[in-house]
Amino acid sequence: MSTADISISQDGIPLKQKLAKTTALQRRRALLLTMPLVLFLLVSFVVPIGQMLFNSVHNDKVSAVVPNFADAILQWDGVGLPPEETFEIFVKDMIQAKKVREVGRTVGNLATRVNYEMPGSRSLFTSTARKAKKIKEGPYKEALIKLNKKWGNPQIWLTLQRAARDITPAFYVAALDLKYAEDGSIERADELYQIYLNNFMKTLWLSALITFICILLAYPVAYLLSVLPLRQSNLLMIMVLLPFWTSLLVRTTAWIAILQTEGIINDMLVFLGFISDDGRIQMIYNQTGTIIAMVHILLPFMILPLYSVMKTIPPSYMRAALSMGAKPLYAYRKVYFPQTLPGLAAGTLLVFILAIGYYITPALVGGEDGLLISNLIAYHIQKSLNWSLGAALGTILLVVVLLLYWLYNKLIGIDKLRFG
After folding, report:
1. Which of 18, 115, 224, 391 could bond 55 through an S-S bridge, CB–CB 3.0 to 4.6 Å?
2. What backbone phi and psi angles, to 5 degrees, belong to 178?
3. What dihedral angle (degrees, nearest 10) is formed by the CA atoms of 255, 292, 201, 392?
């Protein structure tokens, strides 16, 4: 037996056992200290994302409003029209649903759900619900088609069959500018409804452009902050941080006053004679306004990581390169610039991800042309109330960001990021 195995503490407990007990106690204390953070992440991050992922594939409006019909239509083979028994169940469920006033189980919810996949069909369901009580006996198929001949269209019943499934990919189909054909296959949506993929591409393009402009503007500012004397650099730092002391809404609204056709910039250009009074430039409620306002708001997020890295680079490195005969530009490119890449990478990742999800600024200054995908998501959540489509768009955006993050890690390496 080794000495470690027979060592006894003053209270008679083996040292090995006491060490294990002390280590376990420390782990429990560490867990308790981190528990508030874990709970915060669960409540504010994990649960909302999980709910978004669930809502993007789950919609039970049909089964909640006409439950018996939902079970029956799923047994249909999809050929021609459903059997008479299914028509009977549908009519009886519609009559019952018309009497219900419970939130989430009204005929209006059913009509809205089907209208997502078959635009223009909402009135068919609401009018049928009002008239269905006139049907006292069969044959129910003939009676329902007599109420409205559209019920003789198999496409209506195929759409109802798809909508009757609580778990459905239909909202991802719509989010990718696709649609279900009459035979149930998936095809490209009509050009009029192809809006989401174009908006995704526009969001990525504008985010990349905004990030690039921020790099061009932030790099010299960060360099000046790192080399100027303390008094001047502190004054410049205050100017960089000043936007953080002002409300985002106030800053965005200020750009409306500055960029509008009767705003400060256009007035100055007219006064200086660069443009005529009739040739004022439209810089607001378009992509130009979105880019300018977002660059102003996100610029500090690029300057600060760059500055924190540049401040740690010893000036002696450049002096040594110059003393050995290197020209200033060559020394800067070979000696100084590579050392700033960790800060540049951190600022680029930070600004790009923030730009992809921006909502308030494009909504205020972007107009129809400058809206990003986040504005369409907000529209479906707040106005159209198509939460499932909004969740599907949000999930696709999340996947795109994760893919870009993975690509970024492969090309540059996330371990090389440095904020100071």
Report:
1. 391
2. -115, 175
3. -40
Domain covering 197-416, topology: MetI-like fold (1.10.3720)
**What is the location of CATH 1.10.3720.10 in the chain?**
197-416
Is there a contact between 5 and 11 (Cβ–Cβ < 8 Å)?
no
**CA nearest 289: which of 207, 218, 364?**
364
Phi, psi (degrees; rounded to nearest 5) at 58: -120, 130
Confidence of residue 420 (pLDDT cuts 50, 70, 90): low
Half-sphere exposure of 392 (CA within 13 A, CB side): 22
Reported as a single tens digit per residue, the pLDDT across 303-351 is 999 999 988 888 888 888 888 888 888 888 888 888 888 888 889 988 9
The dihedral built from the CA positions of residue 208, 209, 214 and 217, taken in this order, carries a sign that is positive
Tokens of 73: 């239509």
